[in-house]
Amino acid sequence: MSIREFLGLRDDAGRSPAPASVEAATVRKIVAALDALQPDRARFIAAFAYILSRVAHADLVIGPEETAVMESLVRDRAGLPEEQAVLVVQMAKSQNRLFGGTENFLVTREFARQATNEQKRALLQCLFAVSAADESISNTEDNEIRRISRELRLGHDDFIEARSAFRDYLAVLKDNRRPAG
């Protein structure tokens, strides 16, 4: 059985699967680029990269600083060579730009299904790191991370703990520090 068949990319007759397949199409596209890895690990990495791009794109702009942080996180956390990490991040960014509104929940649910609570909390740290790459976490990015935290079924305490490490980058707090006048 090929990895494409295992992932449901083709059925026995060579046809594409029905749109109601269990996994999100976005994850499958990134998984195809990671054929050398075990399928579950590839799905996990694909979902991780996609969720990073989800936060980076929350304000509708993915800056070069955010891209560099995402590539570094995918490389270091997933143990991928740099070229493969760059490819995974680029694919995740493209998929998020094209299908973000419809795929966001599905991909996050796939990640939540596979991840331990420790991995979910680590993801929150990574999401804040991506958002802070340009030295400011916008309210939109902060709200998106909060939404992802809920989708991962993490508690409010987990969210606050991850957020507190990036307190100095929160735009809402920076706005309040400006002198009146």
Structural summary, described in words:
The chain has a single domain (3-177), classed as Orthogonal Bundle (TerB-like). Helix 2 (25-32) packs across helix 3 (39-56), helix 3 packs antiparallel against helix 4 and helix 3 (39-56) crosses helix 5 (82-114). The chain starts with a helix and ends with a helix. The longest helix has 33 residues, at 82-114. It is built from nine helices and no strands. The chain has helices at residues 3-6, 25-32, 39-56, 64-78, 82-114, 117-131, 139-151, 156-164, 171-177. It has 181 residues and is mainly alpha-helical.
Summarize the structure.
The protein is mainly alpha-helical. 67% of the residues lie in helices and 0% in strands.
